[in-house]
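Dear colleagues,

I hope this message finds you well. In preparation for our joint manuscript, I am sending the N-acetyltransferase domain-containing protein (Nymphaea colorata) sequence together with its predicted structure, so that both groups work from identical material. I would be grateful if you could confirm receipt.
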Amino acid sequence: RMAGEEGTGELSISFRPLEVEDADDVMAWKGDPRVAQFCRWDTYTCRDEAVAFIQNFAVHHEWCRAICVAGRPVGCISVTIGKDEARCRGLLKYELAHRCWGKGVATSAVRLAVPAVFREFLRLERIEAMVIPENKGSMRVLEKCGFLREVILRKYEVGEGRLWDVALF
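The corresponding structure tokens are as follows:
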């Protein structure tokens, strides 16, 4: 296998930067309320929102990659490096099209991303993730990848008109 790929049974995933031409693929997960229910953004309603996400976030982010299956984006994964006194840690986030849930894609993506980020950002000591406790699948992904649930932070964030508890891994 080439660097940047990991086998998942019959599936093989790879990473690459998101491009504006991927907007329709991005809509497959950003436009799905089943995905958005676990995220801190509203379900996208038009392709222009996907284009704006790619142009305003993904392209300029320090480490954001499309998660691809058979060369097509089915999700994205990012690590945001902390600033100032938090520069020793990164915050992992990932989103995946519903059709790929339960197939090992997210687990493979996290297993591939974490060492890549540590290789690229040498001062990084810790990668953490925050998951709402209702997102059992994502919590299982992180546990399978060796993350430890450290604490539940009560009423930690506001989004979509509600307060969110988050599990810190």
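For the figure legend, we might mention the following. Helices lie at 23-30, 33-36, 47-58, 105-120, 136-144. The first helix runs from residue 23 to 30.

With kind regards,
E.M.
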